[in-house]
Design a protein that fits this description.
The chain is α/β, with parallel strands linked by helices and 282 residues long. Helix content is 39%, strand content 16%. The chain contains ten helices and eight strands. One of its GO terms (biological process) is acylglycerol catabolic process.
């Protein structure tokens, strides 16, 4: 039986120990059939940072999993020092679930990790969605640390959630959509995830900086279908990276949302869910 709408706000936390000795926290919903869809979250994100409208919308058609990286939230272990090692962690989680073929949605840093999964386990992935993200060595990705630190200070002084500044435009529409998004993240009332530690957050930032300055990957060798999505004013991972990445994948598709920032897929969740479901089911 398929999950009802808005199930993500109530679905239970689960745990599984992988062969690498790490116990991962995850949530699972949707009909348990077909190719599973694994969601990789952004910098400092945990299970509660996924927009429930996006997860529920995807789970109407698919078997969906969200997961905490090693050393984050309710998962144990220590944050690993690179995107490549985070990818190996996620492969270990997927293998612990006994899946040999999955689809992946990677948002922001999760998109970096997803691309590295192609490097370490290319046969594991059937289709991939890369949102609010860019390629290794992409334009200004190394500035994420500087931007995050600056907006974190601004958020403290304005008593505002930092995602308001990092994820959305500062137009009237962007401010309204940011407020709506943050309210949706609060819909879960019980069994919420643990906030990332400062040490783990800084370790992720360091890994992103190294990713941003690393040698670009050869994306032309990957023949899988890839959907790239972003807002037209992403300041964390500048939007030109999305356009470039979609061209570099032989079977890349691109969707850009207007008057939207880093979290365009959350701002336009209805449109994104429809596009993503069509892409995955086509």
């Amino acid at each position: 039986m398929k999950q009802t709408a808005e199930a993500y706000a109530k679905v239970i936390n689960k745990f599984i120990k992988a062969a690498n000795g790490v116990t991962y926290a995850y949530r699972e919903l949707g009909e348990k059939s077909g190719v599973p869809l694994i969601l990789f979250i952004h910098l400092s994100g945990n299970l509660d940072n996924w927009d429930p409208r996006v997860v529920d919308g995807l789970a109407k058609n698919h078997w969906v999993f969200t997961v905490d990286y090693q050393g984050v939230g309710l998962s144990d272990g220590t944050v690993t020092p690179s995107m490549a090692s985070m990818a190996k962690d996620m492969v270990a989680f997927i293998k612990a679930l006994n899946f040999d073929k999955v689809d992946i949605l990677g948002f922001s840093m999760g998109g970096f990790v997803a691309q590295e999964v192609l490097e370490v386990a290319p046969k594991l992935v059937r289709k991939m969605i890369l949102a609010g993200t860019g390629p290794r060595g992409g334009e200004e990705i190394e500035n994420v640390m500087k931007i995050s630190d600056r907006d974190s200070v601004k958020a403290i002084f304005t008593l505002t959630d930092v995602k308001t500044y990092l994820f959305f435009t500062r137009t009237a529409n962007g401010k309204r959509k940011a407020k709506e998004f943050l309210n949706r993240l609060k819909e879960r009332k019980t069994d919420r995830d643990k906030t990332i530690s400062w040490k783990a957050y800084r370790a992720q930032l360091k890994a992103i900086n190294e990713w941003g300055t690393a040698k670009p990957a050869d994306l032309s060798k990957y023949q899988l279908p890839v959907l790239v999505a972003n807002g037209d004013h992403d300041k964390m991972v500048p939007t030109p990276n999305s356009r470039d990445m979609a061209k570099r994948f032989p079977n890349g598709q691109l969707v850009i949302y207007s008057d939207a920032g880093h979290a365009g897929i959350f701002q336009y969740y209805t449109e994104f869910v429809n596009t993503a479901n069509h892409f995955l089911d086509d």
